[in-house]
Amino acid sequence: MLKQTRTFFRKNRTNLAIGAGIVGSIYLGANYVLSKLTDAKNRMATDRIAKENLRRRFEQNQEDCSFTVLALLPTATERILELLPVEQITHQLQEKKAARLAKSGAPSEVSFGALSIKDDDGVSVKSLKSEPAPQTGTGEPRPKKTKAQLWNELKITSITRAYTLIYTLALLCFLTRIQLNLLGRRNYLSSVISLAERDNESPISLENNENNPQLSQEDYDVNRKYLTFSWWLLHRGWRKLLSIVEVSVKQVFGPLNPRDDISMSQLRDLTLQIRKTVEGDGEFSTSWLPFLLPPNGDEDLVLREAGVIPEHTTPDPTGTAQTSAFASSAPLRRLLDETSDLIDSPPGRDVLSQLFDAAFNILLEEKLAEQAFKVVAMPMPGGIDREGRIQEIYEVPPDAKTKVANVLAVVTRQAHLIGNGIPNEYLKAMEKVQDLTGFSAIIYSNFDLSKASPTD
């Protein structure tokens, strides 16, 4: 038996060798394929985790943008309300009405919470809430104005204030999205690079390392200084904007009398005329960069005024545009340059236009339609928003009209809600603009290391 077995193997050793080789090759090949499949599976799992973490961090970043806007907006709102004191003008009109009633012998009880032009045409303007008018700083009596002058001033001031606040809110929302998404991308890259340097041999899991400080002190200082540049819009930019809006409002609404009737279509047309003046029309669109960022050379001014660098910082004796090490920091300069490019880019301008559309739509098509034209909201067929609530629409009849004074009353109230409302319906409407989210995603995911590298 043993001899026969040896004879068999001797006669078939070539075939057996070939067979063993084939089996071994199959085994090795199978192991190789399995290892590659395992590697591919691990890479897919890693990529999936990375994408999920990136998505989650991006969404958190957008929520942070909302909170940041709500935190910064009152700074500009307070100054705009102070510079355009509609309530003081209302108070003066109420005083004139009280004096007139006292002279005529009529009951002198007058509510300072309401303003009326009933004496002229039987139409009341209510809910123009007023506050006691502060005395002038010099103590001199305020110059007397006629009733017509006060109504005209009230008209121009109330519309200018509301429209300026809309533009300021939209610009702040836009700038904050750019800033926080640029920094979010920068911090994300910093954490990835830090993990790669820590262990070059192990795969980078791209986990969320936000709770583990990865930024150097230098990067932290750059981020802080970069965010400080919203100071320009909150203290200087809105003033330039207000002057443009005011001139346009005087031209467009100047001829109107508070007793005049106005339809929704007329109000839309008048508002559109103002918007064309402020925003530009067609190819001649407004560059929003001067309203959002300081001109080159004024970076240190912003940082000093915001208290980020000492007041005693002295200019560079060479007289160059970059006057100190603070403003000439390469990472900070790169962030500001990229911000400028995004603001002036065609997609950026288009997004801003959509933000303006969203806010003016809330004011005209919802608030004024309901409160001035007394239109009842109707549910939209099949309209459900992202929060699961039924969407409503206001359809103003073509022949529906109201007094200009009623429009002023609503606009006056809405100015406070635009600037200080919590929750802020106008900001929510802007955040629902899909192109704003898309624009933010492009900024956040633009991992061009030549632009986005955290360090030089």
TrEMBL record:
Q: Where is this region: Disordered?
A: 125-147
- One GO BP annotation of this record: protein import into peroxisome membrane
The molecule here is called Peroxin
Annotated transmembrane regions: 16-34
List the record's Gene Ontology CC terms alphabetically: peroxisomal membrane
Q: By its UniProt entry, which InterPro entries does this protein fall under?
A: Peroxin-3
A single MF term (Gene Ontology): protein-macromolecule adaptor activity
Keyword line: Membrane, Transmembrane, Transmembrane helix
Q: Which domain of life is it from?
A: Eukaryota
